[in-house]
Amino acid sequence: MISIDVTKLLNTTSGLLDAHFKLSVNKGELLTIFGPSGAGKTTLMRILAGLETPEQGRIEVDGEVWFDSKLKINLPPQKRSVGFVFQDYALFPTMNVKQNLLFGAENSSQYKHVDDLLEMTELTSLASRLPNTLSGGQKQRVALARALVRHPKLLLLDEPLSALDPAMRQKLQDELSIIHNRLKVTTLLVSHDIAETVKLSDRLASIKLGKVERICTPMEFFTTHTLSGKLQLVGEVLKLEEEFPVIIVTLLVDSSIVKTVVDIQEGKKLQIGEHAIISVKAFNPIIIPLQEEQK
Amino acid sequence: MENDFIQTMILTFKLATITTIILLFISIPLASFLVFSKTRFKSVVETIVSMPLVLPPSVLGFYLLLAFSPASFMGEFLTSHGIKLAFSFEGLVIGSVLFSLPFMVHPIQSALSQVPSSIFEAAYTLGKSKFTTMLRVVLPTIRHGLISGIVLAFAHTVGEFGVVLMIGGNRPGETRVASIAIYDEVDSLNYAVAHQYALTLFVVTFSILLLVYTLNKKSLETLR
């Protein structure tokens, strides 16, 4: 069980922001930190890892106090049992894959764990390769495996899949899910990808302007507006073309482009770049598996 | 004559080697300070480090000579402890270290500033101290900067003339280095010997630089 209640003054592009993060994470769960950029998601992760110091508050992990402004306790990153996967992976460029993992290992069980992790992340055959010879997906796996070597109590993943193409992303989401189920490490994942969040997380904490707005399951969060019998898709508005008497809206839904029409009044409320929900009455939808359709 | 030549060349490279080793130990912490420190004091240190780039060597040599002379406070202190720096090899080492400082610090500083902060942070979250991180992660990563610094400082010390002339003079086997010897031989119209020194310096420095740039290219490729 991890309880967090900290305040931190954030310097964002839209000025100073008084952030207050209050949430608790159950042992072994995967909690996604979801929210727009600039909301303070990465800062929260860095505070947990000890890379940034909050102004006030308390962080307790499995009964061990990591930070307490009143008791003047602030464990350095080295003393916190965390695994951190950085957005840019932060692999050590002069060490090969296995050396990157071994760098973190401290005792014989951790040395042994290195081989298991290489196996689990399908990196065994790449063990002697240098990071600059790896693909983005492979680098990501090394970063994940390295973060797990020390059996951390808390695994922090800062948008680990954001730099990958959709296919690689899906594959790694599956792997992440398998690894999480196998090792049961309490995990915080920063993401703003809805599919990823629904697929991977037990719960979701929505963060806006430095505050935790809501903690619930991803399904509860994303389907609040659903009425029965409606099919909903969430997408980003790419293009608005007015063709009297309608507006043609082009949206990006996950990785596919959807074109639809709305009447002018409705269309005027939309803006390019913002997220919108497409809602379709679907009393009798036809759903065919993808392989069938391709035949 | 042949013995003189060998003695002078050995002295020249001994001075450059000792200077480079001392500079390496000073410059790594100094460059880290210049990259990571946030104090206002930093720009003062940065200025002092870069001064030898623009200052005539004779200015530095002149002030060092004054400082080393028994008439000055520092010189008096040193002399009372039996240390004589003016016109001695030790004095030359101090002068060369000061004068070649920017040539070692700048490449290391520039390489360090290119290491992403996440690399340091990744090592910290893996339980490693700042010292271990520096030694095992950062220094290997910036090795091209270290090599450039070593070579530039070494080559610059070999070629130094003004400071050496001011504080070292021209004592064979003690302070007479190759660049001084060339000047001296030309002065006495011994063009053949001057040429011997000049060509040796030319070939040696060219070979060192060529070797380093070739190696450096390879090491840069692994970092990409």
Describe the structure.
- The complex is a heterodimer of chains A (295) and B (224).
- With 295 residues, chain A is of the alpha/beta class.
- Chain A has nine helices and 15 strands.
- In chain A, the strands form three sheets. Chain A has a six-stranded mixed β-sheet with strand order 7-8-9-3-10-11, with helices on both faces. A five-stranded antiparallel β-sheet of chain A has the order 2-1-4-5-6, covered by helices on one side. A four-stranded antiparallel β-sheet of chain A has the order 14-13-12-15.
- In chain A, β10 and β11 (211-216) form a beta hairpin.
- By secondary structure, chain B is mostly helical.
- Chain B is built from eleven helices and no strands.
- Chain B starts with a helix and ends with a helix.
- The mean pLDDT of chain B is 88.
Q: State the helical fraction of chain B.
A: over 70%
Give the end-to-end Cα distance of chain A, rounded to a whole number of Å. 49 Å
Q: Element order, helices and strands of chain A?
A: EEEHEEEEHHHEHEHEEHEEEHEH
The sequence of SSEs of chain B as H and E is HHHHHHHHHHH
Question: What is the average per-residue confidence, as pLDDT of chain B, rounded to a whole number?
Answer: 88
Using the CA coordinates, give the radius of gyration of chain B. 20 Å
Q: Indicate the proportion of strand residues of chain B.
A: under 5%
Low-confidence segments of chain A, given as residue ranges, are none
Number of strands of chain B: 0
Shape call of chain A: globular
Helix content bin of chain A: 25-40%
Which two chains share the most extensive interface?
A-B, 28 and 21 residues
Give Rg of chain A in angstroms. Answer: 22 Å
